[in-house]
Amino acid sequence: xxxxxxxxxxxxxxxxxxxxxxxxxxxxxxxxxxxxxxxxxxxxxxxxxxxxxxxxxxxxxxxxxxxxxxxxxxxxxxxxxxxxxxxxxxxxxxxxxxxxxxxxxxxxxxxxxxxxxxxxxxxxxxxxxxxxxxxxxxxxxxxxxxxxxxxxxxxxxxxxxxxxxxxxxxxxxxxxxxxxxxxxxxxxxxxxxxxxxxxxxxxxxxxxxxxxxxxxxxxxxxxxxxxxxxxxxxxxxxxxxxxxxxxxxxxxxxxxxxxxxxxxxxxxxxxxxxxxxxxxxxxxxxxxxxxxxxxxxxxxxxxxxxxxxxxxxxxxxxxxxxxxxxxxxxxxxxxxxxxxxxxxxxxxxxxxxxxxxxxxxxxxxxxxxxxxxxxxxxxxxxxxxxxxxxxxxxxxxxxxxxxxxxxxxxxxxxxxxxxxxxxxxxxxxxxxxxxxx
Length: 437
Fold this sequence. Notes:
This protein is mainly alpha-helical. The protein folds into 2 domains: 2-224 and 321-436, no CATH class; 227-303, no CATH class. It has helices spanning 2-19, 26-40, 53-60, 65-91, 94-105, 108-113, 120-138, 146-163, 171-184, 189-218, 227-235, 247-264, 271-282, 286-303, 305-319, 334-372, 378-397, 402-406, 410-436. The longest helix has 39 residues, at 334-372.
């Protein structure tokens, strides 16, 4: 069945190659710029905006968009196979495992991202790989090199953070799961410390090493200098309430916000219109302006929590809406466009329903944990602990493209729903039959 899955995923992408072409977005140029700077080892003009994970991937692909598409297509096939393996480890059911793998490859929004020169496919690959390593660790006998798995998970997760910085939040639920597993196995304390250190040290070295590089290169200690700019996606909606000590950046933002709203109907992304003038007028560096915007935004959040929380809630809801960043104008066939459009309408509604089921499952798990102190499926709980906090964290720091940030967690949502249904399908059918009677 695994061979059938791989063959179907391969044929789908072969067909896809004949009807589509690589797609770039405005963010693509930033990754390509850093890739070129890394290749030349010349960081003149470097501002700490992008992290090196995806630029290094682009260098491996020779900065060729078609090669990027080819490699990301290969990663897509591998992701489907890994999802098959994970699901089989958890359920021992070939049919459900096959469904998990095929669901990924036949999800149009995920498939089309493989042709897009952005970080999503690589991020999904690294997240799913880390989950596969965790599952293998849980099914490994003590005679095997257990420390290897902990180190490998740490390295993979560390690199994932350098691809997408907000994936840093994954460290905490994974560390919690690994600690819970070690304590449940009643391992000696020295082994627990050894194993958890084997996981956390690679993550810390990779992430803090990049933060140190940013400090040397830009004077800003952090994974990225974008924090303050991202926060204005929330604070920009009520920036007129900012204290006068921020009057320079506030007034510049307000001028550009008016233009932005007139053109696209929202304040979102105004900062990318306003920041060049802010830099010129204030004389601040890109990183220093980020600090200034961070301080201003945090003060606004504290003094106007109602505005902030409303914006966060809207962003969190957007996270679950399911997005597709395809370019239908890349297709020559009008008939094909119509067919794909109809297929996406069906898929979109299905995926939104799956997201709703995931949230219901989350409530059920939380109730069992807090009311009954009972953990039946620690792996599922860990995955929920990845997705739900990520949705909240992303909503707190970003507004405007939250549905896009959810894309990397879509396979994880599928996984939780499938595994939960596998465990509870008999009970659900029995309940429905009794209700019908």
